[in-house]
Amino acid sequence: MAPAIELTGITKRFPGVVANDDIHLEVAEGEIHAICGENGAGKSTLMKILYGMQPPDSGTIRIRGEAVALNSPAQAIDLGIGMVHQHFMLADQLTVLENVILGAEPMRSLGRIDFQTGREHLDEVGRAYGLDINAHDLVETLEVGERQRVEIIKVLYRGAKILILDEPTAVLVPQEVDELFRNIRELKAGGATILFIDHKLDEVLEIADTITVLRQGRTVGTVKPDEVTAHDLAEMMIGSELPVPDAGASTVTEEAALELSGLRVAGEGDRAVVDDVTLSVHRGEIVGIAGVEGNGQAELVNAIIGIQDPDQGVITLLGRDITHVSVRHRREMGLGYVPQDRHRDGLLLGFTLWENAALGHQTEKPYSRGPWLSRPGMRGRANRIKEDFDVRSPNIEVSAHALSGGNQQKLIVGREMVADPAVLIANHPTRGIDVGAQAAVWDDIREARSRGLATLLVSADLDELIGLSDTIVVMLRGRLVARLDPNDVTPRDLGAYMTGAALEAERTGGNS
Q: Residue 510 pLDDT more than 70?
């Protein structure tokens, strides 16, 4: 039987960069094939080529033995290839059914949508692959794992037999990862071929039938999970052993740097999305916030940064009330910020590295001189960030868009750290970056903590939260519902608190 996918000699160049360099990949029909590699290793480019989003400069693509030229995602979909992106592409205000059929609506006479036929097809897909979802639920009411299931159903509805899953566990708690893996195995049992893109090597070893590792745009090797360990894969990816988050000895002091008291932030219809949150972060302390996305973490961060005004409560920075102070003045007072979405909130992708190095600090020295921006100061600071934080780039004149995701993240972290903040709000600081860049960010946060930095760490990586934090608080439906010692909790325990299962068990004495 011909392979489901066969890529031969795939090469793709961009100005100054060879993203894919003579890549070879063979994926058997009906297998789960994982693709691993650092940011910048060429994974995303290769998947975009396979999904028709960009053509290769050279090389051959064969689908089930036939050479094809893919010039658009529509062509890929026609060949049975579907892609589930890391960032969900759903309309919250529509139902599951409306999201699934959007763009592929079955039609009746007079241009009317045939919802009954769409519902029947959706139900068929769900039964065939063991994906249970209520077609009439509004997407905005779904948990993260359920939304991901809708994304998978959406591509299956369009006839996909080859599925590309891009970082599918990035926002899931362990219990949701278990459910996703059950779904993936059901997909395989139903005859689907899965390409699984992931940075979490323990997950790759658990779910994959075959693993291909990319490094610097080239194929390093293809192995079976029972032949290698996570340590082996890390060495193939980055040339060194797998890093682990570790806070080390406590450096927590008695001095509170950030204090929240009775904080409430209202959402639509005056519903509290942050509800009576009281919390302190001391100098030399990392406080981790755990929670399934959508439970108020984003609004809490926005209130601390000054993007969203709370309607009750007080925020204190270094003993000063900043509840209604502007974002600029909070930054000038010593509040650092690593945003969750580096592209939307952290960088101007078309601007140079030295211009991006000044973002958020452009009113401060050395970026400015009086009312004027100082280009020499901006360039000097950018060079320092590039060297001290290992931002891999030919020079500081290239655009941020030319950097890999890991180097973009190191640029943002470096920009905040060289400003010597008193408090750092680190909002998913290692999301979507490889193990090498992840280790660099951990080292930067640990080193700053030892110098007295107070850090509020929001993360979906439970190993990261447990490894780096001095204290973990759990946020559920806008409230802080648990305070946990990282030395006494496992990722699975933490996931149970995040979903409310542990609290329910405590309430009922374990009989729920």
A: no
Contact 164, 84 (CB under 8 A): yes
Q: Could you give the percent of the chain with pLDDT greater than 70?
A: 96
Measured N-to-C along each axis, helices 144-157 and 115-129 cross at an angle, to the nearest 10 degrees, of 110
Range list of β-strands (E), 86-175: 162-166
DSSP-based three-state secondary structure for 441: helix
CA atoms within 13 A on the CB side of 291: 25
What 8-state DSSP symbol labels residue 251? -
Alpha-carbon distance of 118 to 91, in angstroms, equals 17
Hey, what amino acid is at 205?
Answer: L
Tokens representing 220?
């390093």
Residues 6+ apart with CB under 8 A from 346: 338, 339, 359, 408, 412
In tens, the pLDDT along 185-236 reads 998 998 999 999 887 788 899 999 999 999 888 999 999 999 998 888 888 8
Residues paired with residue 267 on neighbouring β-strands, in sequence order: none
- Calculate ∠ Cα 454-291-501, nearest 5°: 135
- Go through the chain and tell me how many residues it has: 512
